[in-house]
Design goal:
There is one protein chain. Helix content is about 40%, strand content about 20%. The chain folds into two domains: about 90 residues; about 220 residues, 2-Layer Sandwich (BirA Bifunctional Protein, domain 2). By secondary structure, the chain is an alpha+beta fold. The strands form two sheets. The chain has a seven-stranded mixed beta sheet, with helices on both faces. Strands 2-4-3 form a three-stranded antiparallel beta sheet. Bound molecules: phenylalanine (PHE).
Length: about 350
């Protein structure tokens, strides 16, 4: 036994040292090691116990009590720090192991209508807004609907200008892919009493080789009005109203004399461009009396006008495409832009 006199100050020093080191411990494991150092067999506190034997019996009791209190105080400090450390450790473990069960769903990639369909829909909207109804007809037609009823008899040179694709059915050159949507005006007049206000959008065919401005299968929209007292002024005003609604109010229109067998007089209609030049959009005219008669309508009682133009070409103009073939290449990288 050593006889070093007991210094009560040393207990205070042990406690402050324990507090400082517990506060400095950064995790539960190092706190465990510290606990061994502070309270274990080789601890300073334990060393002091050995000095108790050298004290007077009554002093021994008091010092022994102080030592136990110090020990409890150290245990409390350690317990408190352990609670702190294990709480932070648990929190960071939870954070690290966190499973995010929320599902992040990509916005659904919706497609959109093809340029031609968009153009056709817009055209229909504008004309329906002007009081027209939408009429449709078959894509395969007979010579009567595609030509004869439209005042183009088989000897007529105008037949040649239509580059017709014939279907090998029935008599020679009797069945064909329609080369314009004008057959729909015949079908409408056959089936419907005037007044008639229709537009006929649809696919049309000509034996053209595809190039930057032509497609062998393309789309037209035809307008037909049959009513009493209809004049060329109504035709011109209708085209102008449509063009302004579709292209904008700054766009002007003009008619140039032309020829179609099914209209008399006939005209081409042009629209003005920003640079002052004119662009041909389509054909039009007053419905030829022969056409009215072919459909059982009395030309003395009823008059009308018709007009027609290409929807694809309109899309080319509207979307400023370089090549009309882009419309049918079906490249989504191209189509996705519009
Ligand atoms: N059907 C003519 C064409 O395809 C266009 C047109 C329609 C012209 C109506 C006049 C009247 O070329």
């Amino acid at each position: 036994m050593t006889n070093t006199p007991f210094d009560p100050e040393s207990l205070q020093a042990i406690l402050s040292d324990a507090q400082a080191r517990a506060a400095a411990a950064s995790d539960v494991a190092s706190l465990g090691a510290l606990k061994g150092e502070l309270l274990g067999k080789k601890s300073t506190l334990n060393g002091l116990k050995k000095q108790l034997g050298g004290l007077e019996p009554d002093q021994r009791k008091a010092v022994g009590q102080q030592m136990n209190e110090t020990k409890s105080a150290i245990e409390a400090v350690l317990a408190e720090r352990e609670a702190e450390l294990s709480a932070t450790e648990r929190a960071s473990q939870l954070e690290a192991e966190r499973l995010d069960l929320t599902e992040l769903r990509d916005e659904i990639k919706r497609g959109h209508y093809h340029l031609i369909t968009q153009s056709r829909d817009r055209l229909e909207d504008v004309f329906v807004g002007m009081g027209f109804q939408v009429a449709e007809g078959p894509e395969v037609e007979t010579a009567w609907y595609n030509f004869e009823a439209l005042n183009i008899p088989d000897w007529h040179p105008a037949r040649g200008s239509f580059d017709t694709i014939f279907v090998n059915l029935g008599e020679e050159e009797e069945v064909m892919l329609r080369s314009h949507t004008s057959p729909v005006q015949i079908r409408t007049m056959e089936n419907q009493e005037p007044p008639i206000y229709i537009i006929a959008p649809g696919r049309t065919f000509r034996s053209d080789v595809a190039d930057a401005t032509h497609l062998p299968a393309f789309n037209q929209i035809e307008g037909l009005v049959i009513d009493k007292g209809i004049t060329m002024g109504d035709l011109s005003g209708t085209i102008d109203a449509f063009v302004k609604a579709f292209f904008g109010h700054e766009v002007k229109t003009r008619l140039r004399p032309s020829y179609f067998p099914f209209t008399e007089p006939s005209a081409e209609f042009d629209i003005s461009r920003a640079d002052g030049s004119w662009l041909e959009l389509g054909g039009c005219g007053m419905v030829h009396p022969n056409v009215l008669r072919n459909c059982g309508i009395d030309p003395e009682e009823w008059q009308g006008f018709a007009f027609g133009f290409g929807i694809d070409r309109l899309a080319v103009m509207r979307y400023e495409l370089d090549d009309i073939r882009e419309l049918v290449n079906n490249d989504v990288r191209f189509l996705g832009q519009f």
